[in-house]
Amino acid sequence: MMKNYIFEITLKVRDYECDLQGIVNNANYLHYTEHTRHEFLTSLGISFAALHQQGIDPVVARMNLVFKAPLRSDDEFISKLYLEKEGIKYIFHHALYRKKDNKLSFNSTTELVCLINGHLGDCDSLNQVFAPYLTADE
Fold first, then answer.
1. Active-site residue set
2. How many Å apart are CA 138 and CA 135, to the nearest integer?
3. Is residue 14 one of the residues assigned to a domain?
4. What's the pLDDT band for 138 if we cut at 50, 70, 90?
5. Smallest Cα–Cα separation from 69: which of 29, 109, 35, 30?
6. How far apart are CA 70 and CA 2, in angstroms?
7. CATH number of the domain enclosing 23
8. pLDDT single digits (tens) 40-88
9. How distant, in Å, are the alpha carbons of 55, 93, 99 from that of 13?
10. DSSP codes joined into one string, 14-80
11. Which domain holds residue 39?
């Protein structure tokens, strides 16, 4: 079943993100997905600083990365995501599409959990904000 993406942003590869082979270094894909998640959260009015002041710290627990087709310097790409919840984990599904040919370049899942006052727990405030965007378990 095809998932509906709930957020997307267009980004561009910068020269310094590429390795000697002329393709984006693998570590930079993590930056792209993190930037996309942060922009999504900002669009919902979520501030990491404000959450931290409330004792809530969302942290990455696990990532699964799949490299499909390389991005190169100056390539524009569209970074998309959708969100699921499994227990106390928020699972962000990311996909990066090369803009010139709409080819899937990369996909991943990022599992976030919340530390609430230093203890792993379910975050009511994020549950409320994310509710309209969560994909139901199937």
1. 19
2. 9
3. yes
4. very low
5. 29
6. 23
7. 3.10.129.10
8. 999 999 998 999 999 999 999 999 999 999 999 999 999 999 999 999 9
9. 35, 21, 11
10. -GGGB-TTSBB-HHHHHHHHHHHHHHHHHHTT--HHHHHHTTEEEEEEEEEEEE-S--BTT-EEEEE
11. 7-135
Instruction: For strands 76-86 and 134-135, give the pairing.
Output: parallel
Residue-wise pLDDT for 8-51, tens only, equals: 999 999 999 999 999 999 999 999 999 999 999 999 999 989 99
Sign for the CA dihedral angle at 14, 16, 17, 22 comes to positive
Q: Domain total for the chain?
A: 1
- Tokens 């040919």 locate to 101
DSSP letter assigned to residue 131: G
Tell me, yes or no, whether 2 lies in a domain: no
Name the nearest CA neighbour of 72 among 49, 100, 45: 100
